[in-house]
Design brief:
Elements (H helix, E strand, L loop, with lengths): L1 H34 L6 H4 L3 E8 L5 E8 L6 E2 L3 H8 L1
Antiparallel strand pairs: 1-2, 1-3
Length: 89
């Protein structure tokens, strides 16, 4: 009877060990994925954007004004043609 108890406890301990090893493996995989960052783009290093907005010149004609600097929400971003081409492919 005592032998059965010890065998049962041994099996339970093996199950616990296996589940612990599996959780450690999953944790390592999660950390590895977190370390793998996206490819860096130029915008990540320099938070400057090419933007434009409509304005009136000194004659009163409507014209496009360009701005290169930090992102301002009310201005329009210049869309990159290269990115559009890549998305189509």
């Amino acid at each position: 009877m005592v032998d059965d108890f010890y065998e049962h406890m041994k099996k339970e301990q093996e199950l616990l060990d296996l589940s612990y090893k599996e959780s450690v493996r999953q944790k390592r995989e999660r950390k590895k994925k977190e370390k793998q960052k996206k490819k860096w783009e130029w915008e990540d290093f320099m938070p400057f954007y090419l933007q434009w907005y409509w304005m009136h010149d000194w004659l009163g004609n409507k014209c496009k004004a360009w701005y290169h600097g930090p992102r301002i929400d009310w201005m329009f971003l210049v869309k990159d043609k290269k990115k559009k081409r890549k998305k189509k492919k």
